[in-house]
Amino acid sequence: MKWAFFLACSWTWCIGMFLPVLLVRNWGIWGWVVFAIPNIIGAAAMGWVIRSRDVSERILERHRFAIAIFSLITVAFHIYFVYWFVGERLMGPWLLVIPVGAFFLFWSTSRTSPQADPLMAIIVWMLSMCAFGVYAWHSGWRLDLLPSLWPRYEVIWLLPVCVVGFVLCPYLDATFHRAILATGARSRLVFTLGFGILFLCMILFTLWYARPIAAAIYPANAGAIPRAIALVLGTHMSIQSAFTVSLHVRELERMLLSTRFRINAILVCFAATILAGFISKADISGLIGTNGGEAGYWLFMSAYSILCPTYVLIFMIPRPAGREIPMKKGLVLLGLLLLIVGPLFWIAILHRQMPLLAVGVALIVASRWVIPRRV
């Protein structure tokens, strides 16, 4: 089932490789559990919910622009993360040649032979598992977690955010639709294997290296990880990020979007690089409660916790005929929710006001019913 490897690696983002580190740092092992279970179930469920190629094709056609925006944000997020964390904190700027070179290798191979993507995914997954083995051997096969910064019971407030985000975001991921189109009736098995086993292995690796990576977030601890281990972890993050970005760039190319969109896409990616370069060196922890690099990471996360789930709720979940949501009103509501819920999530996560997460999720869920319907 080579497409199961494709799904596991296409979904191993800078979220799966890094967000659990932040959650484990804050709430211990329960932070990883609350991340992992909704993520695996939500992603695997798409293979069961979308029952045919026709349904997937209709989604790609009707929501092409939103899916393209999802891919563009994902590409920009990885550029930011690789530049800020992998380059600044792990391997050094000169070794950014690894993710850049890996991206062009994956992208050019995919353009020449699109069917090679699942085979490349098998290689990428195996390389990450080799890195897992090297790191586990170095650590004595022992899971060594940091003491949690905050009381572990507070993680319960994070659960609804993870459920809403990981259950709804997959439907905007073009690589998931590609897997459904390629596997058809076998998609249920492919999605279950890809996320229930192969992706689980990836995020178990993240759990294993949470302690040193959490320490490396802070500039004062730069260089604390042994050089060889930093290279192993940095190479894992670089190759997985390069593979994910190459897939989303290819999906954007397949959509045959306008020249204007392509120019804007280049500008967005350039802006992400500039932001990473500026914010990684900015000393603003006294103003926002964390260092600039992590703050930028949380800002990108708002796309997957607010923007994308809300779009799916408003526009993608089917409604009775004649009861569709007007596009203009839906987009206005989407913008308002981002402006309202975004600060709530920021205060909740960075200033430990966790009940605000429940308020934000309630507003997101309620968005499906607040717009007058056309009759």
Which parts are unreliable, with pLDDT below 50 for 5 consecutive residues or more? none
- The total of helices stands at 17
Anisotropy-based shape: globular
Main sheet overview: none
Oligomeric state of the chains in view: single chain
Per DSSP, what share of the residues sits in E-state strands of 2 or more residues? Answer: under 5%
Report Rg: 20 Å
Average of the residue pLDDT scores: 88
Please estimate the helix content: over 70%
The SS-based structural class is: mainly alpha
Query: How many domains in all?
Result: 1
Lay out the secondary structure.
Elements lengths: L1 H9 L8 H9 L1 H21 L3 H10 L1 H28 L5 H16 L4 H22 L20 H10 L5 H10 L3 H22 L1 H7 L10 H28 L4 H21 L5 H4 L3 H25 L10 H24 L4 H12 L9
Helix pairs in contact: 1-7, 1-9, 1-10, 2-3, 2-11, 3-8, 3-10, 4-9, 5-12, 5-13, 5-15, 6-12, 7-10, 7-12, 8-15, 15-16, 16-17
Structure description:
The protein is mostly helical and 375 residues long. It has one domain (2-281). It is 74% helix and 0% strand. The protein contains 17 helices and no strands. It has helices spanning 2-10, 19-27, 29-49, 53-62, 64-91, 97-112, 117-138, 159-168, 174-183, 187-208, 210-216, 227-254, 259-279, 285-288, 292-316, 327-350, 355-366. Helix 1 crosses helix 10 and helix 5 (64-91) runs antiparallel to helix 15. The longest helix is centred in the N-terminal third of the chain and has 28 residues, at 64-91. The model has no long low-confidence stretch (mean pLDDT 88).
